[in-house]
Design goal:
By secondary structure, the chain is an alpha/beta fold. It is built from 8 helices and 6 strands, in the order αββααβαααβββαα.
């Protein structure tokens, strides 16, 4: 009887797991359907909200977005021009921009959709001989009708490879120097570019090809 009870519980857990997994593809299909129904051709990229302690993170990240989105076949409004126009309208902070209704913001530029980005992490940590650089970002796209048509989340981590020679003392010194250099001048952009490539091109979140995609 005890074995039968355990079997029933195990089966229930297994079935629950299948049901839980089924919600994933459904959400993806719904997101894809919303995107296709909206059929955006032009995308407005607005300044990123920064939840990290690195002040320059939004500027770096903003500069990384136009090329991958354009490479997917969409017209991208020049990000520096957009930022300047928003500032002329008194919108100096990203949080102010995000409080505007998407339809109104899209109408200012004649955009079909708006890409909002929130930087969750932009850090370089250092513990003894180990250094780690982390970039974590939320992406969200709203069309001119105020409908969410796409979203993604990505966290990228880089840890310098440890030395592996036969000289233990040389390994120690090399690892110390590399870790210190990584923390002193962390290179975030490779992680940023990898995150963008993943969410726009290779992950399940990949954007459908836009109308201006150049086919070889």
């Amino acid at each position: 009887m005890k074995n039968l009870k355990n079997l029933i519980i195990a089966c229930s857990i297994l079935i629950s797991g299948f049901v839980g997994c089924a919600t994933g593809p459904s959400e993806i299909d719904a997101q894809l359907a919303a995107f296709q129904a909206s059929n955006p051709q032009s995308i407005l990229v607005v300044p990123a909200v920064n939840r990290s302690l690195y002040v320059e993170a939004p500027n770096y990240f903003l500069s990384s977005l136009p090329i991958p989105i354009a490479n997917k076949g969409y017209y991208v409004f020049p990000v520096n021009t957009v930022k300047m126009i928003l500032e002329q309208e008194g919108l100096y902070e990203a949080e102010q921009v995000y409080q505007l209704e998407a339809a109104k913001l899209a109408g200012m530029f004649g955009a079909d959709a708006i890409l909002y980005v929130t930087i969750v992490q932009w850090t370089a940590t250092y513990v003894l001989l180990a250094a780690q650089v982390t970039v974590e970002v939320d992406y969200r796209m709203i069309d001119k009708e105020n409908v969410e048509i796409w979203k993604a989340h990505k966290r990228m981590v880089y840890t310098p490879q440890r030395s592996n020679s036969n000289n233990a003392m040389a390994n120690l010194i090399t690892d110390l120097v590399v870790a210190a250099a990584t923390r002193a001048a962390p290179n975030y952009m490779p992680l940023v570019n990898q995150a963008n490539t993943a969410v726009f091109f290779t992950d399940y979140t990949a954007l459908p090809s836009g109308p201006y995609l150049e086919v070889p």
